[in-house]
Specification:
heterodimer, A: mainly alpha, 2 strands, B: little secondary structure
Chain lengths: 212, 10
């Protein structure tokens, strides 16, 4: 464990908590893409299948459990408890356009052709593009609530910090995982446009609006 | 792909 990865995990945890609290306290999931949340729940499910078979540390197992519980709780709140506030008219990105190509790629490009490894690879590739429905929804509505933009900033920062972690581990341990690195770079690049808007607008107290 | 797998990351 290094400081970059710890900060990355905490940023990821912060993002998940921010979103869950936003939905729970405002009793509304307006402006949030349910499809992205379903994809994130799928990412954690396919990545943490070794939760009970491959013990790394208490921290590792605890965080995996928290991520799984919170992501399913968010999906539950959005599609059941506060379903009336779910903006399905603007959350129209076709998930199959992501899941099918990612599933195919996971079969073609992986470290080991075993079910657990292919599912892990699938989760890595899927996580890289899982935010697209959310970014697409914001581009359609042309704006995002400030709390949602904080959520996105924390979520985007997590994988950016992981990239620094991978550079650090490469130089200190000689460890690298090409699949995670390439997918992590794609994932972070997708946030660049948002990062620019967040830093130039939200940090100056303005509403996050996309140029129409 | 070259395998440098530890799966110790979240």
């Amino acid at each position: 464990m290094n400081i970059f990865r710890l900060l990355g995990d905490l940023s990821h945890l912060l993002a998940i908590i921010i979103l869950l609290l936003k939905i729970w306290r405002t009793r509304s999931c307006a402006g949030v893409s349910g499809k992205s949340q379903i994809l994130f729940a799928l990412v954690f499910t396919t990545r943490y299948l070794d939760l009970f078979t491959n013990f790394i540390s208490m921290y590792n197992s605890a965080m995996k459990l928290i991520y799984l519980v919170c992501s399913y709780a968010t999906v539950f709140l959005m599609y059941f408890k506060f379903k009336a506030t779910y903006d399905s008219n603007h959350d129209t990105f076709r998930m199959e356009f992501l899941v099918v190509p990612v599933g195919g790629l996971a079969f073609l490009v992986n470290h080991d052709f075993t079910p657990l490894e292919i599912l892990w690879t699938f989760s890595i590739y899927l996580e890289a593009v899982a935010i697209l429905p959310q970014l697409f929804m914001i581009s359609k509505t042309g704006e995002a609530e400030t709390i949602t933009s904080h959520y996105l900033f924390a979520l985007g920062s997590y994988r950016a910090l992981y990239i620094v972690n991978w550079v650090f581990r490469f130089y200190t341990e000689g460890f690298f995982d090409l699949i995670a690195i390439v997918a992590g770079c794609v994932q972070t690049i997708l946030y660049c446009d948002f990062f620019y808007l967040y830093i130039t607008k939200v940090l100056k107290g303005k509403q996050l609006t996309l140029p129409a | 792909l070259p395998q440098m797998q530890k799966k110790d990351e979240l």
